[in-house]
Automatic annotation (TrEMBL):
Residues forming coiled coils: none
Listed EC numbers: 3.5.1.28
CDD domains: MurNAc-LAA (cd02696)
SUPFAM superfamilies: Zn-dependent exopeptidases
Key words of the record: Hydrolase
MurNAc-LAA domain residues: 93-204
Record-given protein name: N-acetylmuramoyl-L-alanine amidase
Reaction(s) the record says it catalyses: Hydrolyzes the link between N-acetylmuramoyl residues and L-amino acid residues in certain cell-wall glycopeptides
UniProt keyword Ribosomal protein present: no
Broadest EC class assigned to this enzyme: hydrolase
Length: 209
């Protein structure tokens, strides 16, 4: 995890020097970022008291900020929730369909009864090759650039994946809040920044921007 600070530093230093590049498009790609849980549904509670719903919302908001600051809004990013509110899973998928999104990314943190459990996982619906490809890019980036243990791409029957069939959809599990090291890591502003930057970078590469 020590490498994430260097990764963020390099990006921030180069952002003002590198021009935007990529293919001409009729419209920018539409990305739905889904911060899991919210409101009365806190999600996982960390061993240090950190709440999953707060971590993932912070990451989602940072994605929007960096997309504007570093990449001139090259991605059309929408959140399923912008505050500490509980949005039904059905409404999250309906929004994705209504906006005719090109990609859906749901952000979560993991937990386990085994306190030593560590690493990142990315879930997809089985049989969707483009979702699997994107998921592999996320696991590789989180492992190589942020130095997380790669627990791999897994299949899941989550509603937000099951009901989205028109575009690639993935569900990220960003570390275990039941693990002291990863719970402490996820509570840092620098970690939120690193997650957001990695997610944007992966999506831009996926869209060949």
């Amino acid at each position: 995890m020590k490498r994430y600070c260097f990764y963020v530093l390099i990006w921030m230093m180069s952002a003002g020097l590198q021009p935007m590049f990529g293919q001409e498009r009729n419209r920018k790609p539409i990305v739905i970022i889904d911060p899991g849980h919210g409101g009365s549904d806190t999600g996982a509670i960390g061993i240090n008291g950190l709440k999953e719903k707060e971590v993932v919302l912070s990451i989602a908001k940072e994605i929007i900020r960096l997309n504007n600051l570093l990449f001139k809004d090259s991605l059309g990013i929408y959140l399923t929730r912008y505050s500490d509110t509980l949005i039904s899973l059905g409404d999250r998928t309906k929004l994705t369909k209504a906006l005719k999104a090109d990609v859906f990314v749901s952000i979560h943190c993991n937990q386990s009864v085994r306190k030593a459990a560590q690493g990142i996982e990315v879930y997809v619906k089985q049989g969707e090759s483009r979702s699997e490809y994107l998921a592999k890019q996320f696991t590789l980036g989180l492992h190589k650039k942020l130095a997380f243990k790669n627990r791999g791409v897994k299949y899941g029957n989550f509603q937000v994946l099951r009901e989205i069939t028109h575009c690639p959809s993935v569900l990220l599990e960003l570390g275990f809040l039941s693990n002291w090291e990863e719970a402490e890591h996820n509570g840092k502003d620098s970690s939120i920044l690193a997650y957001a930057l990695l997610i944007i970078e992966t999506l831009r590469k996926f869209f060949e921007l």
